[in-house]
DNA sequence: TCGATTGCGGCCAGGATCCGACCTATACGG
DNA sequence: CCGTATAGGTCGGATCCTGGCCGCAATCGA
């Protein structure tokens, strides 16, 4: 069996392990002569993979960071870990990379062996929703299907539940998937209505690729993200919370991160936080988690929610405290 | 330039795109004849990558799910998304895959171009801690460094802050990284003390690979995870919460997931939940998030914490409610 | 300072392999 | 029914790959 390309792939995967491989060990492992290993290393370098070598005893080869990403060779467990990690990130765990997460997830799912797919699904079922009151959940798997259809330029079929509750079945030309204000939107051209439409992904179910290719038309507005922002301006309710937190600035900055909102120092014991989100539950949970005394100034909905939360939590311990 | 193995790698990356590639297009792109493309596809199939083909017009090749993971070819943004996703997962977002996440992260970081590394760091700084009171945070990057040292069989140097506050500088032979009870532990042999030691990763700072290789010795206890569990038995305080939740079983099951603990139905309006965690803050936050009325029976620490929480949240809205 | 170990690259010869060209079969859509 | 796509066979010639040999350079430890 003299399978050169296969050997190169194996070599690449071995070198990806964070350790050094002496040429002799690689030769034995791949059942070829050390000379061939040297030649293979040369080949990899010519292909642009930065293989570094240290000479002398205890020396060896390893793959280092270069200009471009080498192909990642993963074992089963690592692939599952990445899939699960992406599924959480594709929600709104980290702002700014939602779209890339979904693309990567689509790529991964396409080639993920089915036995691993089951493990991913099982692990995901066991995952705790991080925040309450987050509105209808979307399945990251659905997002991946949509992203794949966008990339493949295939028509997409799905059921849509409009704002007034009417259910319709649609078949559209998906153009782009946009994450905006903690929600996902699909920008697409609807051939039945002969016009561009924006669908909320959380109101869409059973997306299916049809296999029907289409020639992508040009979006009138140029950029899809701007298009969504423009169309939705004023239609989404955003809650703006203004809070005084009784804790030093450094502690809060470390605690909240930069995504929480604008944090300003009032004096050495207090800070003012302005935070925006689309649900008061989310705002409330964040505040309750900070762990210091605080005062809420706005909005009234948040005050009402926190009042209710305090009552609920207070009642939960009354019996145990013997009152 | 007739570089067969390189062409195969390129082909693999092209086929990973979620779209179909007609043989003629591939031939033109790779500067070979269509016949060679067919042969290459054959080769890939022999290597175990399931290339599927649809015949007829609009047909083409694409890579589907098979028995093994093919090498993943990622663009910059996708690589960053995966790194960020893994960093969160390597915390304790999902139980059961922490170790695999760290391994995958170590592998990724090793080959991640430096310009992307900066983006990952920047995004991570903006990440919001998901849960409060989680004790000292661990930098997933540190975990990756440790995992790399374990895989490379290199000695590891770090500063350690013992339970009594004493700071020491250590150099050890890292053996394995174990995740146990929502904490990370490093099992290693300490040559200075000539004995096996377990270090808590959250108390360890500035881990550095030394480049000094060592021959791994055999752990007396066989399995590292069992060793940690054995040594730590009784030393970690585990809080066991018993709670009655006033909501139907189905709603709670969907809300809590399976990892929350044992959930039993009392009647159609109430359930009993037994949940374990190492911090009452964590338990308390989870309960407050459920969004229904509940009663806490045990433990007293949790009752005290929730009482404090209710007071804090209640006080935060007093001014706003004009009382 | 010296020796051992490891990577680096050139050379050569034999043999396996790859490529392109040509052909036919088959499946799918219009 | 035709055009286009994949699928696969065969063949000859060019190419490339492998393994063995060599001397050289770098590095580490004794």
Automatic annotation (TrEMBL), chains A, B:
Q: Is NAD a UniProt keyword of this protein?
A: no
Q: Which Pfam families match?
A: HTH_11 (PF08279), WCX (PF25583), WYL (PF13280)
HTH deoR-type domain ranges (all copies): 4-70
Give this protein's Gene Ontology molecular function annotations: DNA binding
The alphabetized UniProt keywords are: DNA-binding, Transcription, Transcription regulation
Q: Which domain of life is it from?
A: Bacteria
Q: What is the official name of this protein in its record?
A: DNA-binding transcriptional regulator YafY
Source species: Kitasatospora paracochleata
